[in-house]
Amino acid sequence: MIKVCKFGGSSVANAGQFKKIKSIVDSENERKVIVASAIGKSDKDDHKVTDLLYLCVAHKKYGMSYDSLLEEIRKKHQAVIDELGLSFDLEAEISRLKDLLDRKENKDEIISYGEYLSSRLLALYLNAEFVDAKDVVSFNYDGSLNIELTKEKFLPFMETRKKIVVPGFYGVLPNGIIKTMSRGGSDITGSLLANIIDATVYENWTDVSGVYVADPRVIQNPKLVSTITYSELREMSYMGANVLHDESIFPVKEKHIPINIRNTNKPEDLGTMIVDSSDDKDSVITGITGKKDFEIISVAKQGSTNEVGFLSKIFGIFDNYDVPIVFLTTSIDSFSMIVDKNSVKCSIYELANEIKTRLECDEVTVSGNLALVCVVGRNMRAKKGMAGNVFSLLGDNGINIRTISQGSDEISIIVGIDEENFTKAVSCLYEGFVK
Ligand code: ASP
Q1: Residue 168 CA: which ligand 1 atom is closest?
Q2: How far is the CA of 317 from the centre of ligand 1 (A)?
Q3: Does the CB atom of residue 184 touch ligand 1 within 6 A?
Q4: What's the predicted TM-score (pTM) here?
């Protein structure tokens, strides 16, 4: 029974947080492998160390001094060292960092310093073994994780009787050069190590007690979800519920290892369990989520429903413009493609025009101001009247539905509405289904 515990930036934000981690880690022997993020924000006006490191790189690039930024980074770590009474040569580390910046060699190595430093300090404080991610976490040249090689390098460390602390967010390419992951990547490191050691649970410690049924910025004090499946979470996170890095699901999912989202500030809360599948029938709805900033491109052409390859030609044009289609709704002889405005790098009108002329369409229109609202729930499957309830709740509240989509797995119902109705829609669905 081994657990991997990943502590996010806010969980290592200051000495007080380090103390909380110690009591969490010491309270269970199973909590053997600890992954740490870089020091994060203590309050909303504070700066994350990773952000400061990115700023250092930018200052260097434009020939500006980064001394005050380095000083801020130094102070944050010094405060932890002083308050916890650690013996650590911070000056040597900061001058190594300065040297890296001066030489401007590998940007990723500079950015990785946040995780490196927080983990060194945490290992010292927990009296644990520090295992540098650069000695274990391995990437292929294309940037994908080399799980086998990481396993080969990491397993020997598991022989130690001590707990192990590994920095998140970075690893090495086959040539030994340090490479960082995308932002929030420490989640991936935790998941990867959980896969490798066949952990019983991957605990992801953060500053919320789990996944909320709805966004707390929209609904006051929403309920917490106790169990959610990986696929439900994927639906929720696409629509804006950001609890975990998307890519962190795959390594644990492969081995059916549950992820437990926990709150470092409230360790008594059991948090949310993210699992492969669940028979728990407590609630029909797992979550209500959504996002603004979508656009619809509608294509109409007489007879196109019977025209072989018509859709594939449309998709080809979207491919050429490098625009992903979020989903597609159809009626006879007309097709509507929904796209996320932020993923459209080209001019949407140019794309629409190309469809119109190349495919000789009767009409191609672009309309914006679209928000998607998504009702997610594995227990909706085969349950009668679910879509009807969604539509009635919206209709009764005077909200017009512009598009409708439900996949055959029946795990979610997504409706497109005018952006100005977004908050109202989420609220009335929450009132109707959850309260
Ligand atoms: N420190 C990195 C970031 O801020 C990685 C992480 O925290 O997971 O994105």
Answers
A1: 8
A2: 36
A3: yes
A4: 0.89
Q: How far is the CA of 414 from the centre of ligand 1 (A)?
A: 31
Does 290 contact ligand 1 (Cβ within 6 A)? no
Q: Is CATH 3.30.2130.10 the classification given to domain 287-433? A: yes
SS (H, E, C) the chain: CCEEEEECHHHHCCHHHHHHHHHHHHCCCCEEEEEECCCCCCCCCCCCHHHHHHHHHHHHHCCCCCHHHHHHHHHHHHHHHHHHCCCCCHHHHHHHHHHHHHHCCCHHHHHCHHHHHHHHHHHHHHCCEECCHHHCCEECCCCCECHHHHHHHHHHHHHCCCCEEEECCEEECCCCCEEECCCCCHHHHHHHHHHHCCCCEEEEEECCCCCECCCCCCCCCCCECCEEEHHHHHHHHHCCCCCCCHHHHHHHHHCCCCEEEEECCCCCCCCEEEECCCCCCCCCCCEEEEEEEEEEEEEECCCHHHCCCHHHHHHHHHHHCCCCCCEEEEECCEEEEEEEHHHCCCCHHHHHHHHHHHCCCCEEEEEEEEEEEEEECHHHCCCCCHHHHHHHHHHHCCCCCCEEEECCCCCEEEEEEEHHHHHHHHHHHHHHHCC
Mean pLDDT by 10 residues, the chain (435 residues): 97 98 97 98 94 96 94 98 98 96 89 98 98 98 96 97 97 97 97 98 96 92 93 84 88 96 97 90 86 96 95 96 92 95 90 96 96 92 86 95 85 94 96 88
For domain 3-275, give the CATH number: 3.40.1160.10
CATH topology identical between 3-275 and 287-433: no
Evaluate: CB of 245 within 6 angstroms of ligand 1: no
